[in-house]
Amino acid sequence: MAVAFEPLSIDNIEEGDFVNEINRTLLDVQHKLTAYREKYGDKSKKATAELVVKIKLRIEEPDQDLFSIHTSLAPKVPLRPSRVTVATEAFDQNGRPALFVRKSGSDEDNPRQGKMFDGKGRAIKQDTGESDDE
Fold it and tell me: Minimal CA–CA distance to 90: which of 112, 108, 109?
């Protein structure tokens, strides 16, 4: 009995498992992108996710008409958005220049400016500079 052949397509790579994996990974990328939007709100604007599908065909045995099919998936989802906070330069206990922030941590404001509350709404103890929960 002769073996039946058909042209290579995405649907028959790895006996159909590859296209199924593409679809599962694409769905996962979508879930992660929507979760990112939910977590970061307005800061998520223009964030992108990507699924790179790679199929490489290689000649293995030219005299035997044998080729190999190499597949890979590379999902890329956004991580936390970048943020800029500030520090001020001062001298450490050894007299060397270093960067310093408030005891409650860095934020967008000049660290030399006092604060009553941290970014999470916790009161800052004026005597220590630490957040109330610390």
Answer: 112
Please, which pLDDT band fits residue 124 given cuts at 50, 70 and 90? confident
As a whole number of angstroms, the distance between CA 48 and CA 78 comes to 6
Q: With contact defined as beta carbons under 8 Å apart, do 72 and 54 qualify? A: yes
Q: Between vectors from CA 107 to CA 117 and to CA 116, what angle results, nearest 5°?
A: 15
Q: What is the 3-state secondary structure (H, E, C) of the chain?
A: CCCCCCCCCHHHHHHHHHHHHHHHHHHHHHHHHHHHHHHHHHHHCCCCCEEEEEEEEEEEEHHHCEEEEEEEEEEECCCCCCCCCCCEEEECCCCCEEEECCCCCCCCCCCCCCCCECCCCCEECCCCCCECCC
pLDDT in tens, 4-32: 899 999 999 999 999 999 999 999 999 99
17 phi and psi angles, rounded to 5 deg: -65, -35
pTM, two decimal places: 0.69
Contacts with 103 (C-beta within 8 Å, 6 or more apart), sequence order: 128, 129, 130
